[in-house]
Design brief:
Strand order of the largest sheet: 1-2
Number of helices: 9
Order of helices and strands: EEHHEEHHEHHEHHEEEEH
Radius of gyration: 23 Å
Largest sheet: 2 strands, antiparallel
Distance between the termini: 46 Å
Number of domains: 1
Strand content: 5-15%
Number of strands: 10
Length: 289
């Protein structure tokens, strides 16, 4: 009633919160009460605060997760156990010959469609977190094959197609020894990982467009006001990891230095796990108006 928590979207639940039910002459009292009950369950006092406390208690106190899709690991990174991540890591279902051929036909169709319109096509393979940090995977998971499905696909395209393929994994792995490149409690790369990818993609595009000049790390400065990887939308947690694994801390985000590539566009609210990389994307758009 006081408007202290006017949220309309629950990021942790990935859904829009129920709106206040409108009364109409066609509505029955019973139906309206049921709609109001659902509205109340989404908007009762301190709901979001209680959800956050619940997640923190499970994560930091009981060393488990409020999400069935997450594995609590001691150390700097946790594992996402949904969206095929574990299956891809174990490699119990490699691509079939038919699936690889479907990939080839689909990519060649896209390339040819674009080429007919004077547009270049670059197929980029972006790595999941488990490809870059396999040491953080649960030890009970035993890999059945050394190669990933991405390796299968890239090898197949190189042998049977002329589609231009860029595998980002070598560049990201090479940068792994310096800074953490992925959100600690999420599946996506953070500002630093996104910058590594942007630099490698821009480098590849220079073969077609020599005027491109990729931004480097020196073109960005750190800003604690825009943390990178400070929380996850599914667990609603704040990062509490530093060199000594004690005390709250979040990696400062990267912001384009003044005068180099323009001013980054404002961060769009509504997604805490993906919006950080928009600053680097905006830098790329500033270079290619």
């Amino acid at each position: 009633m006081l408007g202290w928590d006017p949220q309309t979207i629950s990021e942790s639940e990935r859904r829009e919160l129920v709106k206040f039910p409108e009364w109409s002459e066609a509505a029955t009292t019973t139906a309206w009460i049921g709609d109001f009950q659902r509205y109340f369950e989404d908007h009762f006092s301190f709901r979001n605060r209680l959800i956050g406390w619940h997640s923190a208690l499970l994560w930091y106190g009981l060393h488990t997760s409020s999400s069935k899709h997450r594995d609590r690991r001691e150390g700097r990174l946790d594992v996402y156990a949904d969206d095929g991540s574990l299956e891809d890591y174990v490699q119990d279902q490699p691509f079939t010959a038919e699936e690889l051929e479907t990939w080839r036909l689909t990519l060649e169709h896209s390339r040819d469609w674009l080429a007919h319109r004077g547009t270049k096509f670059l197929f980029v393979v972006a790595p999941d977190k488990q490809m870059i940090y396999p040491e953080r995977m649960p030890p009970a998971l035993v890999r059945l094959r050394e190669e990933y499905r991405a390796d299968q696909l890239i090898a197949y395209l190189q042998a049977h197609s002329s589609v231009h393929v860029l595998d980002l994994r070598p560049a990201v792995r090479a940068a792994k020894g310096g800074e953490i490149l992925y959100h600690r409690h999420d599946t996506h790369w953070n500002d630093r990982g996104a910058l590594v990818a942007e630099m490698r993609i821009a480098e590849e595009l220079r073969g077609w467009f020599p005027a491109i000049r990729p931004l480097g790390r020196g073109d960005f400065h750190e800003s604690s006001e825009l943390p990178s990887g400070d929380r996850t939308s599914m667990l609603d947690l704040v990062d509490h990891d530093n060199a000594n694994d004690a005390g709250p801390r979040a990696d400062p985000g990267l912001v384009v230095a003044n005068g180099r590539a323009g001013t980054p566009r404002p961060v769009r609210r509504g997604s805490t796990h993906g919006h950080r990389d928009s600053r680097i994307e905006s830098a790329a758009r500033a270079r290619f108006p």
